[in-house]
């Protein structure tokens, strides 16, 4: 994110916080929190289930200390309040094998009726999945540092009929990736739309929708030549933005290469497009809640031709609504990304029906791929080479390249409570096949046991995690964290 844009964005957040403080409809007080802890392991890295889906706060390298502080103000929950505002800020200091200061959240938000506008960094998940025990949505899992953006949304299902039979939610956002290893000052376009069929008091409800992510624009930090013309920047004008929003193809008889315009990239579309189509079925009674969901992957035309229909995330969530002890929630998920439409890639001279070799999360123009601040934005099972600590690091010259994106993984998560102890147990087993250009065959098992319990005004958290030798190095790790909220 350019420095001037960053200052402008954070200035907008500050303006919102300062000038909305006198609003009459606000009554909920800010909440503050501090955390301190350490991470230790038998290997040089933190185990998979200690560092994954932590919004970039836990570094790859182990043996260090962490200190965190946050403030958050949520919306007024009183009924009948049309307007309200909120904000949040969270800072992380890591010292040891990795020394860094992170601002993992800084945002301001305003709500009017069902609509919300926010600006800044904020923790989010995108897609239909269990919000507590999921391995994370395929496309946006909470694995990477949040991307700064401006977004307007319907964050919660909102009825469009008086009887509540049909309800919708969705978002439209513009974000900033900033500077990567290969491109700087490039952007995020994001939108989603989800529909729920079923009245609020019905036991069965059907969910369906899609999300659309695009990396676009930016100035190249490497040499690229297309049709004999050197490309220095990708399209960032209004015409390019319209191509991004609509996903319209660039192919035409008068195709041109012009820097800064929609045709500058020499590819099928402006930017790197990816996302999922999601469906879900929910059942709820007085005691239990079940949710089955499926996320289907698209990055080019493979899904349209059903070539990669076997790929996606399939999940089943079970929750005991009235329970206060014993097993409270169970989630079973299966991630399948090994098809990718087959090994034959598509090109202008290739039949559309042969689209394949999708090479998930990689892109020929945005070489950093679907990553931010060095970490995968989507599912943590598809990670850059430097995070695959059990693989030879000479598999690619660029250690930030994703060489293992053909993965089939099963994960079981259990949330339970025994007296004053809150427990989360996870076990994941995966088959890692590399990609079609770099075939591999590694099995991987990773387990986690998280225990949290109160001690006076504090909450103590202990995480024990283990990885066997596979795509990750054999590793036993421990995370200790003391939290205080007030």
From TrEMBL:
At the top level of its lineage, which domain of life is listed?
A: Bacteria
**Which InterPro entries does the entry mention?**
Caps_assemb_Wzi, Wzi_sf
**What's the protein called, per UniProt?**
Capsule assembly Wzi family protein
Query: Which organism encodes this protein?
Result: Larkinella punicea
Q: What is the lineage of its organism?
A: Bacteria, Pseudomonadati, Bacteroidota, Cytophagia, Cytophagales
